[in-house]
Amino acid sequence: MTAKLISGAEVAAEIREELKTRVKNVVAKGVKPFLAVVLVGEDPASMSYVTSKAKGAAEVGMHEETIRLPAAASEAEVLQVVDRLNKDKNVHGILVQLPLPKQIDEKKILDRILPEKDVDGFHPINVGKLLIGEPDFLPCTPHGVQQLLVRSGNNPEGKHVVICGRSNIVGKPLAAILLQKKRGANATVTICHTGTKDIAKYTLQADILVAAMGVPKAITADMVRPGTVVIDVGVNRIVDPSKEKGFRLVGDVDYDAIKEKASFITPVPGGVGPMTVTMLLVNTVRAAERKAGIQSPE
Ligand code: GUN
User: Fold this and answer.
1) Is residue 53 annotated as a catalytic residue, yes or no?
2) Residue 109's domain spans which residues?
3) How far is residue 255's CA from residue 202's CA, in Å, rounded to a whole number?
4) Are residues 210 and 264 in the same domain?
5) Is residue 297 one of the residues assigned to a domain?
């Protein structure tokens, strides 16, 4: 079996088309969706993400501003920027790009963002609301994974989803999204992590396997049952002198071998990546819709 490719680029483009209409509707009510991104330092991967956020926002007709601070910025300086954005009535969404430099306590910064502007969905209030099934904002990467599944005809309802990785950004919130008794969810969820003995025992039982460990090619073909839907959240830079930039991106699954066993698979790049940025735009439009008194779609 050769797997069908799930193109994140295509699904993201479809959602962005829908967003253009929603943006027009809020603009008609006098509210222009505004996303503020805070970037501290010059980490190359972070700079690349921030550029794609700015491009995406412009594409759907939103306002975006990136506030850049030097790598040596103090925690107090970052908090000051967050406070200013919290107070700014024109700003609907605030995202502080992670990771932050060592001298800054990430948790302190994320906790300072007003929950109603927390388009990352990382504030403890939003994490709690997600867990009890009453979310305001779904975290972007796991929400993107859910949309990729549903829109590629692989609705997770009633399926066994095995997630490898328990990060606060992907593994845990994805489990919280998929186990809700809701459309596009209602799955049986297993989470594997570094403390799991014999991960393959679980991955071989998956209908849908999500790799989010941040380890290049950690999932090998012998860990995958024929016909599994494989979603690769990993974005790992590995040295490759043959590339102009000196590196290439690989995921957390051994793509070449697993595409011969899976029924569907996401590529890296071009799979989950474009979805993350798109779901951030979705959350910002949601925040603006709330301000404009427009009911957001589910
Ligand atoms: N760095 C890597 N992924 C993310 C994300 O989803 N949000 C933020 N703020 N930073 C990140």
Assistant:
1) yes
2) 30-115
3) 19
4) yes
5) no
> Is 283 close to ligand 1, i.e. is its CB under 6 Å away?
no
Residue 149 and residue 105 share a domain: no
Residue 140 Cβ < 6 Å to ligand 1? yes
**Active-site residue among 20, 24, 29, 53?**
53
CA of 98 to the centre of ligand 1 (A): 5
Q: Is 120 in the pocket of ligand 1 (CB under 6 A)?
A: yes
Tell which atom from ligand 1 comes closest to the C-alpha of 98: 10
**Looking at the domain assignment, is residue 51 inside a domain?**
yes
Return the ∠ at Cα 263 (arms to 182 and 6), rounded to 5°: 70
For residues 94 and 38, the answer to whether their CB atoms sit within 8 Å is: yes
The helix/strand/coil state of 90 is coil
Q: Please tell me whether residues 186 and 61 are part of one structural domain.
A: no
- What does the pLDDT look like over 9-19, one tens digit per residue? 999 999 999 99
Active site residue 97: yes
Q: Model confidence over 178-235: pLDDT tens digits?
A: 999 999 999 999 999 999 999 999 999 999 999 999 999 999 999 999 999 999 999 9
Check if the beta carbon of residue 85 is closer than 8 Å to that of residue 118.
no
Query: Is residue 97 located within the same domain as residue 189?
Result: no
201: domain CATH number is 3.40.50.720
